[in-house]
Amino acid sequence: xxxxxxxxxxxxxxxxxxxxxxxxxxxxxxxxxxxxxxxxxxxxxxxxxxxxxxxxxxxxxxxxxxxxxxxxxxxxxxxxxxxxxxxxxxxxxxxxxxxxxxxxxxxxxxxxxxxxxxxxxxxxxxxxxxxxxxxxxxxxxxxxxxxxxxxxxxxxxxxxxxxxxxxxxxxx
Length: 172
Prior knowledge:
The protein is of the alpha+beta class. Helices cover about 35% and strands about 10% of the residues. Helix 3 (about 95-110) crosses helix 5.
């Protein structure tokens, strides 16, 4: 635990990038640390740490791996990394889909939209590499992942109208 702590500090404090107009800066997130047996008088012989990156389009998974390994090596740690890429960040350029959605929202809801990548992780990350235009459009997520998560029925009704208007614009 003591050997890993300085490396974790460096990983947490590392400026991975400064982000860009579409993404905030990349962050390193520790999600789990497990060491020892639970007894207070045993020095753990190993530690397992799970972490993830919320990364922007300024970095690739390979560059992140190289930089993590360089930091771990700087601290002379014996380690084994198991990497799992859940999906790279993506951007969709303007096109028929984006224009149809923006137009439908303005028509049905009465306001202009701003494109944003702040919605979190979605299955769009698996579709974007095919070259398809990808957007995320759903109900207001004010209570997402919270106790008593809910959506107003009126928001679902309005969203249904937006979806219908999108289909009209794209198919007619």
